[in-house]
Amino acid sequence: MSRAREELARAQAELMRALELGEPVPAGFDAERVRATADTLLAKRRRGVRRAWPVLERALGEAFAGEFDAWARANPPRAFEPHAGVEGYRFALALHDQGRLPRQAEAEVLGFGVRWRITPTGGLAPRWGLVLRMLRMGEARRWRWAVRLPGGRVLRGRL
Asked: What pTM does this model have?
């Protein structure tokens, strides 16, 4: 690879880190425009997750934007993950792992897991047949389950 191509590749990688992770803007780029673009990309991600996960968004209320933005800055989008539903699922699971998933959104998380599977390219494909998902949820960390029956009906419960 020529020196010019190596320099271009390095500058592009630095620009992507500035856009996705908030790292310093590389030399030769207008810092104000890069920050504006980064803010726009983050807002686009937030809107997509808000649309794909309405119950989670309502449950978090005013805190949704701040919570999602903090998570999104620490978790840049994956090139192979084009669907906002997948990103919302990752966000919801992060809240769950921290013990901060709102109770109202628990059914939405389980329902997603029994209805959809994430493809290797990051898209979504419907699940078929019998599917069972279980997660420990709530302050008591009790088991919640969801079962997708053949035909699409979903049953939910607690143990």
From this structure: 0.83
